[in-house]
Design a protein that fits this description.
- By secondary structure, the chain is α/β, with parallel strands linked by helices.
- The protein has two domains: 2-26 and 279-347 and 371-376, Alpha-Beta Complex (Aspartate Aminotransferase, domain 1), CATH 3.90.1150; 33-277, Type I PLP-dependent aspartate aminotransferase-like (Major domain) (Aspartate Aminotransferase, domain 2).
- The chain contains eleven helices and 16 strands.
- It has helices spanning 2-15, 33-43, 51-64, 75-84, 102-110, 129-139, 171-180, 232-242, 266-296, 328-337, 364-372, and strands spanning 68-72, 92-97, 114-118, 140-143, 146-149, 155-162, 184-188, 196-197, 200-201, 208-212, 225-229, 302-304, 317-321, 343-344, 359-360, 373-376.
- The strands form four sheets. An eight-stranded mixed sheet has the order 1-11-10-7-6-2-3-15, sandwiched between helices. The protein has a four-stranded antiparallel sheet with strand order 12-13-16-14.
- α7 (171-180) links the parallel β6 (155-162) and β7 (184-188).
- α2 (33-43) runs antiparallel to α9 (266-296), α3 packs parallel to α9 and α4 (75-84) packs across α5.
- It starts with a helix and ends in a 5-residue tail after the last strand.
- The structure holds pyridoxal-5'-phosphate (PLP).
Length: 381
């Protein structure tokens, strides 16, 4: 194993051109961030009213090729909204992958709905279309156009697909299955900004797509998120709920629903406007870094994980260890000691205490993938 660590460390030191610590994905501010931030402060419109929120939303919608974008305080809030605007709540069930960041599942639970944790696909690392279809076929039946879970009697209303580390799920198949079984398709594209299939951006396939602009994501607004949609109705509902469900009025306070304060502040959006201008440059740098790494690595003990569909934003660089005597945890520890941050994909959500009471299938592919796939840095140098 030492030879592998040595080879990785040497390659990383060369490509990232540093002898210092290499984090997974540090934020990079080399555009007009400071200029916009200063301008935002000087305007005094640092909160939810201000031109930067509008500018960021329209720039994001244009970049993604979506009709509408709503900027939020973080990606988790946008996920929560994506479900609420589709009337998902108590008595409903939402299919999601067992391997994801906890926010995917937490957002479902916030609404009162129950997550159903299904297995991932070995290559896409995201929700398996085959497993979704099998679950719907065997565990649900149609009643008045709705898919009803045969055991719980609940309405399986949506499928929340997550594009793991920027790799597209089997989106075509999932779209077809959702259409056939009358489920809504929502994309947790928090990690997939800039990933695409042909010219279509991930996050724009479902009825709603969600992005995150946390500090470790492809671009950042400090903390922040967004949802994108082509539906004016869904956008309007999301806007309303995110702005405390206040009925527009010049001075009176009337709220027609239990709303949320989920708006992105202008000061964060100012960062976002500057960051979004850099994204294509960042993606190219990230792509080139991976190409260079590939030429420097001795791939006897592992393979480089490549996306099955489309073009990934290459959030992280991933390798798959295919030697039995390898232990991914000790590899991560060794790399850490040599100054290279590494991590596993995620853990299975269904095995965590707060989520054990929900339905999960026997997700064997998830276990296998989690034992083999290692995430390594690919921050913009
Ligand atoms: C980052 C992330 C989110 C949202 O995270 P926030 O920190 O709330 O912006 C949601 N889902 C996945 C899969 C993520 O990686």
């Amino acid at each position: 194993m030492n030879d592998v660590v040595e080879n990785l460390v040497k390659a990383y030191r060369k490509v990232h051109n540093t002898e210092g610590y290499i984090p997974l994905h540090p934020p990079v501010f080399r555009g007009e961030e400071k200029k916009y931030l200063l301008d935002c402060i000087e305007s005094t419109f640092v909160s939810s009213v201000g031109k930067y929120v509008d500018d960021f939303q329209s720039a994001l919608a244009e970049y993604c090729g979506a009709k509408y974008a709503l900027a939020t305080v973080n990606g988790t809030a946008a996920l929560h909204l994506s479900l609420l605007i589709n009337d998902i709540g108590m008595g409903d069930e939402v299919i999601c992958p067992d391997v994801t960041f906890a926010a995917t599942a937490a957002a479902i639970v916030y609404t009162g709905a129950d997550p159903i944790f299904l297995d991932i696909d070995e290559e896409t690392l995201g929700l398996s279309a085959e497993k979704v279809e099998a679950f719907l076929e065997h565990n649900t039946r149609e009643i008045n156009g709705k898919r009803i879970n045969k055991v719980t009697g609940k309405h399986v209303k949506a499928c929340m697909a997550m594009h793991n580390i920027g790799f597209s799920v089997e989106i075509d198949s999932l779209e077809k299955i959702c259409l056939r079984y009358n489920l809504l398709l929502i994309e947790d594209a928090a990690e997939a900004l800039g990933s695409r299939i042909g010219n279509k951006m991930l996050g724009t396939f479902g009825c709603v797509g969600v992005y995150s602009f946390n500090g470790n994501k492809i671009i950042t607004t400090g903390g922040g998120g967004a949802l994108v949609t082509d539906s004016k109705d869904l956008f309007d509902r999301a806007f309303h709920l995110s702005t405390t469900a206040k009925v527009p009025h010049p001075f009176e306070y009337e709220h027609d629903a239990i709303g949320y304060n989920y708006r992105m502040p202008s000061i964060n959006a100012a960062l976002g406007v500057a960051q979004l201008k850099m994204i294509e440059e960042f993606l190219e740098i990230k792509r080139n870094q991976i190409e260079l790494l590939k030429t420097l690595l001795n791939k006897k003990c592992f393979s480089v994980v490549m996306p099955k569909y489309g073009i990934s934003n290459n959030w992280f660089f991933m390798i798959r260890i295919n030697r039995k005597d390898f232990n991914i945890q000790s590899l991560i520890t060794s790399l850490g000691r040599s100054g290279i941050m590494a991590r596993t994909l995620w853990s299975r959500i269904s095995k965590m205490k707060p989520y054990q009471k929900y339905i999960a299938t026997d997700n064997k592919v998830a276990d296998k993938v989690l034992d083999q796939v290692l995430c390594l840095p690919n921050g913009v140098v």
